[in-house]
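Researcher: Structure prediction, please.
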Amino acid sequence: MKKSRFSDAQIISILKQGENGIPVAQLCREHGMSAASYYKWRVLTQQFLLKLCR
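Model: Predicted structure follows.
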């Protein structure tokens, strides 16, 4: 499996910026990533949080 360009801390930071109202397109430009990556990370973190709540 390919190693991620972003650490877990960086991913969480990017997701928090998105939750605070920064547009996804702007985040993608600033961090050099695709919108698909952002949405994939968001889904994965939501699934992880759901597992923790069970």
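Model: Residues 27-54 form one domain.
Researcher: Thanks, that helps.
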